[in-house]
From TrEMBL:
CDD domains: AdoMet_MTases. Methyltransferase required for the conversion of demethylmenaquinol (DMKH2) to menaquinol (MKH2). PROSITE patterns: SAM_MT_UBIE, UBIE_1, UBIE_2. Keywords: Menaquinone biosynthesis, Methyltransferase, S-adenosyl-L-methionine, Transferase. This is Demethylmenaquinone methyltransferase. The gene is menG. The lineage of its organism: Bacteria, Bacillati, Actinomycetota, Actinomycetes, Micrococcales. It is an enzyme of class 2 (transferase). It comes from Labedella populi. It catalyses: a 2-demethylmenaquinol + S-adenosyl-L-methionine = a menaquinol + S-adenosyl-L-homocysteine + H(+). Belongs to the class I-like SAM-binding methyltransferase superfamily. MenG/UbiE family. Pathway: Quinol/quinone metabolism; menaquinone biosynthesis; menaquinol from 1,4-dihydroxy-2-naphthoate: step 2/2. InterPro entries: SAM-dependent_MTases_sf, UbiE/COQ5_MeTrFase, UbiE/COQ5_MeTrFase_CS. Its EC number is 2.1.1.163.
Length: 238
């Protein structure tokens, strides 16, 4: 029986759902995004700007595709996810990379000490967290003073006409495609629901500021289907 999470986003439900889609997850994402997932990953990697010697937390890392992109810089990457199935696929694909560690972790209670990371990032995972504001605060806690956050997430196209086309794609086109390419088509009903339920760009920016992040800004990608939010942890004051 296929697992499908709902908008209550109970961690057990969401984890089980991602376990089931893990095998074909990357292929499905590429098909559904019409190849844009690769462009979004490049933009995110540039925004994170990992450098040799830095320690970067890639939260909701899934199968490790984004972590591998960050690791090419020479930085040490901790690929964290709460889906064991996703992490197992990641280890099979990228376990040979000596600067990537795969760790099972809950975004709302990270198993890391304070100020461990130079940068934290999460791609297409924050909206799946039961308490996204708690996760944002946890990411602040584990980031070094002056460190940075980058969130890549589905968002709200600001142009009304384009938003209408996007809604048509989510409601009519995507379900048909998913039945062909996914191992759990029901899970992608949740994808549609979670995207529509997710707040627009200004609200996520407000959550970041409320948590204590500074210099918060965002950049729309693909007409606002996706947005990159950035921020920086304030330097500690005496």
């Amino acid at each position: 029986m296929n697992s499908k999470a709902d908008l209550s986003k109970q961690p057990g439900q969401v984890s089980a759902m991602f376990d089931e889609v893990s095998t074909h997850y990357d292929r499905t994402n590429t098909v559904l995004s019409v190849g844009n997932d690769r462009l979004w990953r490049i933009a995110t990697t540039r925004a994170v700007d990992p450098k040799p010697g830095e320690r970067v937390l890639d939260l909701a890392a899934g199968t490790g595709t984004s972590s591998a992109a960050f690791a090419a810089s020479g930085a040490h990457i901790v690929a964290a996810d709460f889906s064991p199935g996703m992490l197992e696929v990641g280890r099979q694909k990228y376990g040979h990379l000596t600067n990537v560690d795969f760790v099972e972790a809950d975004a709302t209670a990270l198993p890391f000490g304070d100020a461990e990371f130079d940068a934290v990032t999460i791609s297409f995972g924050l909206r799946n967290v039961e308490g996204p504001q708690t996760a944002i605060a946890e990411m602040l806690r584990v980031t070094k003073p002056g460190g940075r956050i980058v969130i890549c997430e589905f968002s709200t196209p600001p142009n009304r006409a384009f938003r209408g086309l996007y809604d048509f794609y989510l409601d009519r086109v995507m379900p048909t495609v998913v039945k062909v390419v996914s191992s759990n088509s029901d899970a992608y009903d949740y994808l549609d629901e979670s995207i529509k339920d997710w707040p627009a760009q200004p609200k996520l920016a407000a959550w970041l500021r409320e948590a204590g992040w500074r210099d918060v800004a965002w950049r729309n990608l693909t007409g606002g289907i996706v947005a990159l939010h950035r921020g920086r942890k304030p330097l500690e004051t005496a």
